Amino acid sequence: MIRKILVSQPEPASEKNPYTELEKKHNVKIVFRPFIKVESVSTREFRDQRVQILDYSAIVFTSKHAIDFFFRMCKELRINIPDDMKYFVISETVSYYIQHYVQYRKRKVFWGKSGKWADLLPVILKHKGEKFLIPQNDKHNTEIEQDMQSHDLNYTTCVMFRTVSAPFQAHEIFDFDMVVLFHPSGLQGLLSSFKNFEQGDLRIATFGNTAAQAIRNAGLRLDLAAPNPKAPSMASAIDLYLQEQNSAAEVAPAAKKRPKKRVAKKAKAEVPQRSLKDMSAEEIYKMRSEAAKRAAATRKAKAEAERKAAERRKEAAKRAAATRKAKAEEARLRAEEARLKAEEAERQAALKRSEAAKRAAATRKAKAEAARKRSEAAKKGAATKRAKAEATKRATRQ
Fold first, then answer.
1. Is 0.70 surpassed by the pTM of this model?
2. Which structural domain, as residue segments, surrounds residue 142?
3. Last residue of a domain, one of 135, 165, 195
4. What are the phi and psi torsion angles at 192 (to 5°)?
């Protein structure tokens, strides 16, 4: 009997959603807890893709996540999107989401009718002259690229966000009868939460072919796959499944009630319950001996598990110590390299200062020599003038 369902998606913002109706209709509890989270790539990772956003005249959005992370990247890179930029969006509902970032104008926003790529492609083909940029997830469907290439369109894809698993934490209780997955990363989050995961009676439901194929590849039992001809949405598929389960549960007790009672009586007759009073001392000793052996085996298994865990912790500590030692050695080498560079820079600076001092001394020496020569020339000129004056005086006396 299914009483508690885990849906690996964020909880809907409004109470008016199909899952609320399911809870009331089938008396089940639905818990929303994503197994995956979406995070942006860093600006450095985006730059490494060598994509210049302003080189394109049209952007193709296949989800709200693509819109969020595209405009967030533009903000971080301080890129102002021109007003004549065109946007091609997977559906009309998603297209309205663009108005959170830019002024919404029908003349520059185009969308498909059904929310499927096959309906958006003809709209894109009417604008073949545009240069398209397609922001995508790191794990995206290659169908879009194949179609764009087959129609000889000028396009570029870029990764702006990635999907990573969000496993259960130690304090979270996993007591669900059904798990609903929408993405292969959700399965990775489930398996990484429980290392020795066993499906048992847990029902697994998926939405989309990729998630369903991931369940099969993991060797797990797929109990419900959507969409299907009877149920186009996940909520409608769960509704039909619960109806079938409830119908089967109502029929089963009446059909199996009497045979179970007869089998139980027969088993009771064949294996009567015995108390210690009815057992001999030898039987009691044997029973207690077997119990002691089982307890000893359990203790031995626990001790072995603890020993292996201690060995793993020891190995992990060794690896951590080796890592710290390697990092310390790397830091020491970087410090030594920096010290040598500083010493070399200081030596070069001292050499330059010495050369400058020598040039300044040579300049001063040259200036002193020039001053000495001018002084000697001045002395010679004065002596010449005195001699001429003396000669003039003698000539006058004569």
1. no
2. 39-165
3. 165
4. -75, -20
